[in-house]
Amino acid sequence: MAREHSLFGRLVLRVTIILTIGAALLITAAWYYGRSAASQTYDRLLLGAALQMAGSLSIEDGKLNASLPVSAFELLGFSQEDRIFYRLIDTEGQTLTGYRDLAGYIDYTAARTGPVFLNDVYRDTPVRLVVVSRVLSDPPLSGWAYVLVAQTTEARNALTQEITSRAILLVILMSFLALIAGILAIRYSLQPVAALGSALHKRDPQDLTPLDLDIPTEMKPFIGSINHFMNRLDQRVMLLQRFIADAAHQIRTPLTALAAQADMLETETLPANAQHSLQRMRVRITELSRLTGQLLNHAMVIHRAGTVHLEKTDLVIVARQAFRMAVPVTVNPDIVVSFEAAQKQVSVAGDIVSLREAIANIIDNALRHGSKAELAVRVSAENNRALVEVSDDGEGIPPEKWPHVVERFMTSKPHEGNSGLGFAIASEVATAHSGLIRFREKTTHSNFCVILDIPLGQDT
């Protein structure tokens, strides 16, 4: 089976994908922003400490002296989990104080034009390093001195993570709210589609007039196509009705005339073989007339099943009419026929013509292929179901054939000229009335029975 696709589900999926991609981009941007903000914040603290250290350099007795201010270390002490490394280099490139192995490979001269920041690894620990310079112009001692200050990156990483996590939480919350708003907007926008489906579902099957609904502009081509299709369908239905009526008249009339011509032949003057052929011709004419009538009735039932509105109907009256129509006046006098209604009225929601045709076909089947001396029709109601039971004293149909005899052109007695349409017509009528055809097996105490089982009307 092909998997059903929901327009609402497809739209929600696409909106979700778009929001997910947007959220991923925003989270990535938030991470870059958090890292940049944390880096700038701690770089400023690192630079402030380095400048204070550079400002503490002084020349005493012709020698460079450094009196490191406590405030420089307090400035970096806001991050308690980080460690600080520093190094002061005099004008001759020698370490004045601090860690002598700190960044010994870099070119300090680049710091003469401004502070230099770089990432490094010191003692197997990632650090952020700043290099600042100070020019000394005292006569005894002149040149460039440098200050290197390094700080581990735990605090700035923690700040980056905190900024990013808060941004992620905000992005997720906003994306969720946007998704909910998108779902509500999609649901609201698809209401015209549901309204169109409801209008088509509530429309009478016989109503093929154009739809006139207040719909969005985007759906007008769809409505136009539906109206065009209904117009074509209306024309086809009219042609079908005309064809059935013409076929019924054009086919039945010649067959009736042919049967009358065969009956007018003088059988006494014909040879024996001609009389046998004439008898066979009469049988075939009768079978052809019956088959033609059933085919036309079957076409009528199929057409009415989808177009006729079901109305409140008294099933007792319909069954009585079908009984009179199916039981001929010239019925075998040895067969006892009876009609019984357990209630005066059994109301159902049905199509009178189709129900009458279905019951008549069941009775006709029983007369032609079942009953030997007895045929009974009974109408009753029980357990919110309306039942029309047609029983006869014939052999009945074997249970293994019950599922098949309600199919078109399937018969349990093909040698008796059965067309296999009687039960098919009855079954399709029962299905159109939300019912079914059932069978009851023949026993020593009861005859074989065919049951038309349909729901009762609401007020019964």
TrEMBL record:
The keyword Phosphoprotein applies. GO terms for cellular component: plasma membrane. Residues 246-458 form the Histidine kinase domain. It catalyses: ATP + protein L-histidine = ADP + protein N-phospho-L-histidine. This is histidine kinase. SUPFAM superfamilies: ATPase domain of HSP90 chaperone/DNA topoisomerase II/histidine kinase, Homodimeric domain of signal transducing histidine kinase. It is found in: Membrane. It comes from the Bacteria. Keywords: Kinase, Membrane, Phosphoprotein, Transferase, Transmembrane, Transmembrane helix. PANTHER family: SENSOR HISTIDINE KINASE YKOH, SENSOR PROTEIN QSEC. InterPro entries: 2CSK_N (IPR013727), HATPase_C_sf (IPR036890), HATPase_dom (IPR003594), His_kinase_dom (IPR005467), HisK_dim/P_dom (IPR003661), HisK_dim/P_sf (IPR036097), Sig_transdc_His_kin-like_C (IPR004358), TCS_sensor_his_kinase (IPR050428). Pfam families: 2CSK_N (PF08521), HATPase_c (PF02518), HisKA (PF00512). GO terms for molecular function: phosphorelay sensor kinase activity. It comes from Pseudochrobactrum saccharolyticum. It is an enzyme of class 2 (transferase). The chain crosses the membrane at residues 12-34, 167-190. The lineage of its organism: Bacteria, Pseudomonadati, Pseudomonadota, Alphaproteobacteria, Hyphomicrobiales. The keyword DNA-binding does not apply. Gene3D superfamilies: 1.10.287.130, Histidine kinase-like ATPase, C-terminal domain. Its EC number is 2.7.13.3.
